[in-house]
Design goal:
Number of helices: 5
Helix content: 10-25%
Structural class: alpha+beta
CATH architecture: 2-Layer Sandwich
Bound molecules: zinc ion
Distance between the termini: 47 Å
Number of strands: 6
Oligomer: single chain
Number of domains: 1
Largest sheet: 3 strands, antiparallel
Length: 115
């Protein structure tokens, strides 16, 4: 007899229920709908900025390919804003605000062991 076992709902794992800051740990705290809470260090978040300038495009090197060092303020998280129902815009201390992190991307960043 076939079991009617629920399939894990992937959207629960990529839908945030709450964002918070952990200033002491310099991390973004994300609570996901599936009950998992993750921390994403600001520097990892900054280095993972998905915007064209940071990632590089059309043969141009990205921000951290040119210079892997973080500049002052670059990984100071100034603010966040929800974008539609799919992502998070992050505003950095140096004014950089063109990166929109899809929730799937955030979930991947938080899942990685720190270090
Ligand atoms: Zn960027």
């Amino acid at each position: 007899m076939a079991q009617n076992r629920p399939i894990p709902n992937s959207t629960e794992a990529t839908t945030p229920s709450r964002f918070a800051y952990d200033e002491a740990a310099r991390s973004l705290v994300v609570e996901w709908r599936d009950g998992v809470t993750e921390r994403i260090p600001f520097d990892r978040l900054r280095r993972s900025c998905p915007c064209a300038a940071c990632r590089g495009e059309l043969g141009s090197p990205g921000r951290f390919q040119l210079d892997p060092e973080l500049r002052p303020g670059e990984d100071d998280l100034a603010d966040i804003a929800l974008v539609g129902n799919y992502g998070l815009k992050v505003i950095w201390g140096d004014g950089h605000d063109t990166g929109i992190y899809r929730y799937e991307h955030l979930r991947e960043l938080g899942s990685r062991p720190s270090g």
